[in-house]
What we know:
The chain is α/β, with parallel strands linked by helices.
Amino acid sequence: MKPLVITGPSANSGKTELACQLLRRHPGIQVLKITRFHRESHCPVHSPAEDHCDGCDDTPAGYEIVADDSRIKVAGKDTGRLAEAGGEPVLWLRAAPHAFNYALKAALARFNADEPLLIEGNSAATQDWLDATVVLIWPQHPKGVKASVLPALRRADRLILIESSTAPGKRVPPSLVQACNRIGISLAQLPYPEWLSAFWWKAGQMQPVDENLIGGISSALTSGVRTR
Length: 228
């Protein structure tokens, strides 16, 4: 079955929330959370005012595959949210860029290839050898645009945009246009955009159109069929 990879331009784009919504509809699905840690002195993920993130914690071997519940099922962490939503098992791949290709293959070998697999993380979409359905979710105001999301622009099977909370609602985020220009493609080369309402992620705020869209992605996950 083709894994389903959820990508987004930055932290707090909605990747984990979308993954959790899918898992609540189909609990028991295998999940791989990916974090690439960095070698730079300045973290590319969080602001200088923040302490650090998972990408700041060093891994001497170049990568690690975390399966221990004491590290996975931590309240508030992405892996904890994915497990609480129904992911089973949830593994966490932490890898340095130079080791990522090997690390991802090692992580995928831990899963049942005949069962659905949900991958949360941009880096999986950078690997051309990985045959997967790529879902790109893009909010109106992301916290920057990571370089790791740029390959997903070329590989996306579904483009999910978040409506603005002010009129006009359905406007293409300027950051998405800029990202396309950065790699020399046009918006017309992306999948036709689908829309989630501005507050789809808030409890009680999901609209019927949101339910239908997430349900369609859920069907792609469980069928393992490419949707573009």
